[in-house]
Amino acid sequence: MKYILLMSGTRAGVEAYHTWPKQDIEAHMAVLRRISQELTESGEFVATQGLAEPKEAKVVRGEKNGVPVTDGIFPESKEFLLGYWIVDVPNAERAYAVAGWISAASVNMPIEVRQFATHEAESR
Amino acid sequence: MKYILMMNTMKSGQGVPEWPRKDLQAHIAFMMAVDKELHERGELVSAEGLSFPENAKLVRAGKDGRPVTDGIFPESKEFLAGFWIIDVESPQRAYEIAAKVSAAPGPGGAPLNMPIEVRPIMSGPPPEML
Asked: Is B129 on the interface with A (CB under 8 A)?
C-alpha cells in the first residue's frame, strides 16, 4: 500500500527554520538522510523530495482560451508543502510509524499521512 | 526543471463528486489523456491521486518516539487531492500544463478552472548542508 507523508509549514515557519544554528540544520538533515537510507534498505522507499521556498509558489488557473493565469498571492496562514516521502508499506500502522520517526527528527512537526487512490477508483 | 502541480480540495469535498456518470467519465478521460500526452512528450515524472480526506491522519512523534495519530482537521484546511510531477524546460511550460489541468471538464462538460499550485522541486539539499 502506497502512502504519501506530507510535511507542511507556513512562510513564517520556513523563515524561523533559516535562523537555526548551522549545526542544528546539519543534524536535522543527517537524520532525514538516515531515514531515507533505512527505508531504502527495508524496500519501503519510493521517493522523497523537498520543495523550493514558498516565495516561488504560484497558483495557476486556465482562462477561457486556455491561457494560464498565474498568481503568487497567498494568505499568511496558508500551509505550504515543504517536502514529502512516498513509502510502500504493508499497512497504515507502518506508515504512521515512519511519519512519527520523521516528526521526531523535525521538532515534532505534524506529518500528514495519506493513502494513494487505487487504480480501480481511477478507472471508474 | 522539475515542478510539482498540486490540485487541492476542501474537507467538504469528500467522496466522488455527485456529477452525472458521463460527466465523471469525461473528466477522468481528460485527465488520462493529459497524462498520456505528458508521458509521450517525456515531461511526466509521476502522477497520483490521493484517497479522500476522511482517510487522512496527522502524525506526530510522542515523547517515546511512538507515533501519535490524530484525524481532526480545521474545516478550512485544504487537502491534496492529487499531483503531477513534471520535468519541463521552463516555468512557462509548467504554467501551461497547470492551466490545461485547471480547465478539466466538470458537470455538463464546463471547464472547472480549478486553482493548481505550482512549485519548483529542489534537486537536493543545499550543498553546504551535506
From this structure: yes
